[in-house]
Amino acid sequence: MKISILYLIVVLFLAQQLNAGYNEELIKAVQISGAPSPVLIEKTITLKSFNNIKLSMLKIQGNYTPILASTDGKYILVLSQLITLSNEDTLMYQAFMQEIQAKNNGKAISLLKGLPKDSFLELSSFSKQPKSTFYIISDPECPFCREELKNIEAKLATSNVKIIFAPVHEKPSLIKSALIMKEAIGTTSEKLKVLSKYFSPDFSIEVSVKDAEHIDISSISKNITTFHESRAIKGVPFIWESPNE
Q1: What is the torsion angle, in degrees rounded to the nearest 10, for the CA atoms of residue 18, residue 21, residue 27 and residue 30?
Q2: 108-243 is classed in which CATH architecture?
Q3: Is residue 242's pLDDT more than 80?
Q4: Which of 18, 104, 139, 236 is least crowded, fewest Cβ atoms below 10 Å from its Cβ?
Q5: Residue 199: its pLDDT value, please?
């Protein structure tokens, strides 16, 4: 029994020494690559899909980022979105990335969870058993948001989608957003047609000052205050995938 306890103590001591060496070398490697100080290592897991590679969560200037590193921490690789792992590692990786997203976007996620139903456009998944819900903060006149809209049907194949309009462009974008919320009713396919209409770069909205007064943009203005003026997000589109429970 005494031998077993002594063995356990030795193993724990060696593990701590190895982790300390890994952390020190990894921080050096990251700083050499140009990252500003301080660099903190929040968490490290070992992947079974790759030999001699670890996955670490770094905190750099308040932002959390994942990075792959050799087991000695001396060599690093920026993590790509395209990564093939074993089933066991995939579950660990997904949880790891969700934790990073929550740390980086905690304020925005908290605000999204508390939004009343009339604050977003809800699109039901084409699947009878959606695996998640995508929250997308968008702007009909944002070119990047237009590109993201091209991916919406792929998301709807397996997930629900909730779109929150918080434009960064001028008043015509607020008016478009309000009109989408007013006109996008019915089935998911019918709502997609309305979105395509107003997000099209060829669609120019012509509203007189008099007519504009009758278009209620108060809910859109409230979204702008909630997400932009509070600095909860840095820009649009902002996308968060919440697993369905």
Answers
A1: -80
A2: 3-Layer(aba) Sandwich (3.40)
A3: yes
A4: 18
A5: 97
